Amino acid sequence: MKVLVTGGAGYIGSHAVYALIEQGHDVVVVDNLVTGHRGDVHPEATFYHGSIADYRFMTEVLRKELVDGVIHFAAYSLVGESMTNPFKYYDNNMSGTNVLLKAMEDCGVKNIVFSSTAATYGEAQNIPILETDPTNPTNVYGETKLAMERMINWYHKAHDTNYVSLRYFNVAGAHESGLIGEKHDPETHLIPIILQVASGRREAINVFGDDYETADGTCIRDYIHVCDLAEAHILAMQYLVNGGESTICNLGNGEGFSVLEMIEAAREVTNHPIPAIISPRRAGDPAKLIASSQKAKEILGWMPKHPAVKDMIASAWAVEQKRIVK
């Protein structure tokens, strides 16, 4: 296959690019490098520096490269920021996706795998969460992702655009080479923050609430290794290229781990104490989120190869240690 990856210089996108190339596919990357890193793009990928919101730019790329489909990662994704600057998220996430879809239609590209989010569900009504469960986002980020899903579905109905939307939960880990990994500025994800404490870049980890209705009182989440997530996107594209019907799939391990369990696992992996400070709850944090990925397993043939959280932490720790050495 020849695949265009939007946001291919970002954390998840760069891992998808590496996986595609390792499997022998041709890859084209489009990224504006606002949050992505040029150095994280695989050297064998064809790279274009630009915005998906630039219609002329996107049509030039698509007409030149003649791809089989698009894997769409490009989006702003900070929940807190989305609540204080909603315009930025509506403008970039929704408007950019609309331009991308229009360019795809005008250039005859019919397949898109959309990297969505479990934030579309909001407060979970059932555990594990199914694709048929109600969607009721509790933040602007989740709202824009749900709107993007619906936009893609309307393009599907109007123009026969084929899609798979993948809703995933907490992503963690890094490529086994240690060449790429998670690096956000500011960092907001639990595992890299924990590891920054272990490496001495932070003094302690704040645990937001220990009075939830869980075994140890802290929030429980479903974690997925970034390489397993990348593989799911590739399988979804192959599914579409082979004539699969448009659909939505959850991705996760089907097993939840609390914040304190993740900290303890990181202590064992890193052999560092990792001080934790119990802080007040954050507004809008559900007590427990766990996905059912049965549909993805049945339809896409997806099976996580790295389900152990200690493996996720160890791969991320290898990257963190390299940064400290530098």
Automatic annotation (TrEMBL):
Its cofactor is NAD(+). Pfam families: Epimerase. Keywords: Carbohydrate metabolism, Galactose metabolism, Isomerase, NAD. Gene3D superfamilies: NAD(P)-binding Rossmann-like Domain, UDP-galactose 4-epimerase, domain 1. Pathway: Carbohydrate metabolism; galactose metabolism. InterPro entries: Epimerase_deHydtase, NAD(P)-bd_dom_sf, UDP_G4E. Residues 3-252 form the NAD-dependent epimerase/dehydratase domain. The keyword NAD applies. Its EC number is 5.1.3.2. The keyword rRNA-binding does not apply. It catalyses: UDP-alpha-D-glucose = UDP-alpha-D-galactose. Transmembrane segments: none annotated. One of its GO terms (molecular function) is UDP-glucose 4-epimerase activity. Belongs to the NAD(P)-dependent epimerase/dehydratase family. Homodimer. This is UDP-glucose 4-epimerase. It comes from Turicibacter sanguinis PC909. The gene is galE.
